[in-house]
Amino acid sequence: MKRTLPLIGLCFIVISMFMSCTSDDENENLFNSTYEAKITYSPIENEVLSIVNDYRSNKGLNKLDRLNIISSVAETHSKYMAEKGIASHDHFSERNEELIDYANAKKVAENVAYGFSSSQDVVNAWLKSDEHRKIIENAEYTHFGISTKTDNEGRLYFTHIYIKQ
Question: Residue 38: its pLDDT value, please?
């Protein structure tokens, strides 16, 4: 009789662990669905993605697939930068972890900018910078996303994120 109690307790723990794993999987699917459903792209965002893919194609690199979950993560950072009034990579590690968890990212990088009024101007600025250009030209990346937000003075803030799945 005394041996049955620990065995029942052990069974309860194992069943509880199984149930929590199932719940996490369901939450992940809900999380992905939420990100995928709510994204709309502005003309300037679509143009940046197109210009970058054309540039990569001209260099003999694979074109990247747009992934809405990446743009959702980028959106939170663009809002943050517009509120702060400065371009930054603040909290990049959090965006990195989010994309690892929910987009199956193996590698993550981002380019940010502000103050540009055209897609071509912002991409040109990134291409003139060695560090930004290395991200754009990295053959390992498979997907990307983008978000732009405007501050109170009408300046655009760009967050362009790349991942390798």
Answer: 77
Task: Round to whole Å and give the CA distance between 156 and 114.
Answer: 5
Distance CA 54, CA 76 (A): 27
Give the HSE-up count for residue 121: Cα atoms under 13 Å, Cβ half-sphere: 10
Q: What local confidence, expressed as pLDDT, does residue 137 receive?
A: 98
Instruction: Identify the CA nearest to 109 among candidates 72, 136, 149, 139.
Output: 136
Tell me the HSE value of 93 on the side-chain side, using a 13 A CA sphere: 0
CA distance 163 to 135: 10
Task: Determine the average pLDDT of the residues in 62-85.
Answer: 96
Q: For residue 152, what pLDDT is reported?
A: 94
Q: Closest Cα to residue 71, out of 164, 159, 165?
A: 159
Residue 125, number of CB atoms within 10 A of its CB: 15
Which residue has 């996303």 as its token pair? 145
How much is the pLDDT for 8? 43
